[in-house]
Amino acid sequence: MVNLYPWLTPIYHNITAAFSQGHGHHALLFKADEGVGAENLVTATAQFLLCQASRSEEKPCGRCHACQLFQAGSHPDFHVLAPIDNKDIGVDQVREINETVAQHAQQGGNKVVCLQGAERLTEAAANALLKTLEEPRANTYFLLQTDVNATLLPTIYSRCQAWMVASPPQDTALAWLQQQPVVVQSAEKTDEILTALRINYGRPLLARETLAQGLIEKRREFLRAFWLFYQRRSPLELLPLFDKSLILQQVEWITAFLADALKDKLEIRDGWICLDLVRGVRQFSEKQSVQGLLEANRIMQQMRSDLTRITAVNQELILLDGLTRLITEVFCPESDSGRAD
Ligand SMILES: [Zn+2]
């Protein structure tokens, strides 16, 4: 069976217990952020529903014919509805599924439809699906997956039993990350793993990717360059170090550093992101004013929103403008008057 991430086990047991006790819902809606592994939960639930032996057990057996077909990706009563070529899910796709589930299950058991990206249904598609959800068929289950912030037609929402798949507690995520081969091999220290987690808002799969790509080290190098930029007041030295494929992350690295400096200044100890650079953050914040750090955070947020809004052609100008403002409005002489180097 699909390997369930440890933080998903409790919710999986809640879902399957309901089915085992005979009151499972015909349409489940999984609301989740990217990077918490919700797709695994959906797959495990699908296999559970298709397994011919799992009615009384808590997990699919992995041995029956249905499980074998499912694991081979060829179970005839398992259907996936998802955006094709990143286009919205159209009404024709839903009609096709509706016709398929109107027929008998080929394996004589349950039929399961996984709907990935439910927020991508066009209005017509959503209405076509709604009709099906309103008239549940025996042995037919819909598993809808959607982004946590996505808006779904309220009428669809009201037909589903919603499950929220949240990021795990930090300790759970940390313990899991420490066991990951990519993390062990690179001998990451705990504060680096925690930093990777916090950069990714506590989402373990994204944190693992960050660690696997060596981005924590890259980020430290980049922040060292940021420090030099700050000391030398030289935007043109930092500018070439922005990497087109990482640009938003790099802006976020600086933003997190400045936000932590502000927290340090205000003596807020919770929620720091740069746990691997605490000393650097403190050294930096000593030389800044609260006012200056507030302004720096505003400048970085502006930079980020400009970068996401405007075409790539202007990226360099946006960066140069933001970095120059940091110097003239934040790091300008009066903010570190009396400083002895
Ligand atoms: Zn089975």
From TrEMBL:
Give the top-level enzyme category.
transferase
* EC number(s) stated in the UniProt entry for this protein: 2.7.7.7
- Give the catalysed reaction(s), semicolon-separated: DNA(n) + a 2'-deoxyribonucleoside 5'-triphosphate = DNA(n+1) + diphosphate
Highest taxon of source: Bacteria
- Which residues are in the DNA polymerase III delta subunit C-terminal domain? 215-326
Q: GO MF annotations for this entry?
A: DNA-directed DNA polymerase activity
Q: Which UniProt keywords apply?
A: DNA replication, DNA-directed DNA polymerase, Nucleotidyltransferase, Transferase
Coiled coil ranges (UniProt) are none
Please verify whether the record's keywords include Protease: no
Q: Which Gene3D superfamilies match?
A: 1.20.272.10, P-loop containing nucleotide triphosphate hydrolases
**Alphabetized Pfam families for the sequence:** DNA_pol3_delta2, DNApol3-delta_C
Protein's UniProt name: DNA polymerase III subunit delta'
Tell me what organism the protein belongs to: Exercitatus varius
